Amino acid sequence: MDQQLEQLRTEALAAIAGAADETAVEQARIKYLGQAGALTVVSKGMKDVSKEDKPRIGKLLNDVRTAVTAALDERKAALLASADAAAFAGVDVTLPGTASRLGSLHPITQLQDRAIQIFRRMGFALADGPDIETEWHCFDALNTPKDHPARNEQDTFYMPDGRLLRTHTSTIQIRTMESSAPPIRIIAPGAAYRRDEVDATHLAQFNQMEGLYVAEGVSVADLKGTLEFFFRELFGSDAQFRFRPHFFPFTEPSFEVDIKATALGAADKWLEIAGCGMVDPAVFESINSKRGDTAYDPEKYTGFAFGFGLDRLAMIMSGTPDIRYFTQNDQRFLAQF
Ligand code: DAH
């Protein structure tokens, strides 16, 4: 039996070493270790082995089985490794790969998101309104009379039914006050439209962000504090501001905000960045008559409002010389943000 086992070992190891592929290895396994395999058959004969031979033969049987199992595993691994090597033949894995191109948010969207985050921290909620508006929401309610130049057919896109593309996001102030009573503290980003000749600083469709705060005792100090905090978050804490008296029909007093910031490069120039003011009581009165109540009692409530152009702000912050870059979808431009 010893001899038979030794012979089986030699034969099996030779067969495994010569197995050319995985199928051949599997066949060898069945032939020697399978249910009817040669080694299985031998081990069944163990019961006829004499008592004194049993330990020796048993140990030999085990050795042979272990050796055959190990050889099978080894051969299989070697075959797999050479299959891998064949698959990579001619491929230089040390060459750099092709990077996939990641998209990103548009620079105006990035700025808008940042602005929303800053105002959120001061308790402002997001408000929205339609792009196609009534003349009342865009002009009348905002104390802008019929003969105001902004209402000229040459300056505004009118629909055949008399509605128009909103010329500013101030319409959302009106929409919000129509539907909710004070106190109100909202910001409203959105598109605005004007019949402007498109050039380096004008687009027929652009983006604004509006703000409105109405409550008891709101003052110009609150307006200045809020806008200064906001613009310092954007431009850095060393930014300087100037609130220059101006005129808007819907605020009294009204201001334009100018900024000087070292972060902008041209640090000794004042740049106009926003319009703002204290809500004109006439605006509250038109809201009241629309609502049919006195929710916005001008004797009780005051408020401030502001609006700025996101495109213009993005241009200033990034040093972009031409507003049209933001709409051309040129990857060479957008990839810089
Ligand atoms: N609506 C103005 C514009 O488009 C900007 C503006 C100025 C908005 C003053 C306001 C404000 O809310 O108070 O030029």
What does this structure look like?
The longest helix is centred in the first third of the chain and has 34 residues, at 54-87. The protein folds into two domains: 2-86; 107-334, 2-Layer Sandwich (BirA Bifunctional Protein, domain 2). Helix 1 runs antiparallel to helix 2, helix 5 crosses helix 10 and helix 7 (171-179) packs across helix 9. Helices cover 41% and strands 19% of the residues. It has helices spanning 2-17, 22-33, 38-44, 54-87, 107-121, 135-138, 171-179, 220-235, 281-291, 310-318, 331-334, and strands spanning 125-126, 132-133, 164-165, 184-193, 205-215, 240-248, 251-260, 271-279, 302-309. Strand 6 and strand 7 form a beta hairpin. It binds 3,4-dihydroxyphenylalanine.
How do the helices and strands line up, and which of them pair or pack?
Elements: H1 2-17, H2 22-33, H3 38-44, H4 54-87, H5 107-121, E1 125-126, E2 132-133, H6 135-138, E3 164-165, H7 171-179, E4 184-193, E5 205-215, H8 220-235, E6 240-248, E7 251-260, E8 271-279, H9 281-291, E9 302-309, H10 310-318, H11 331-334
Parallel strand pairs: 1-4
Antiparallel strand pairs: 2-3, 4-5, 5-9, 6-7, 7-8, 8-9
Helix pairs in contact: 1-2, 1-4, 2-4, 5-10, 7-9
The structure holds 3,4-dihydroxyphenylalanine.
The site of 3,4-dihydroxyphenylalanine has 11 residues, from strand 8 and strand 9.
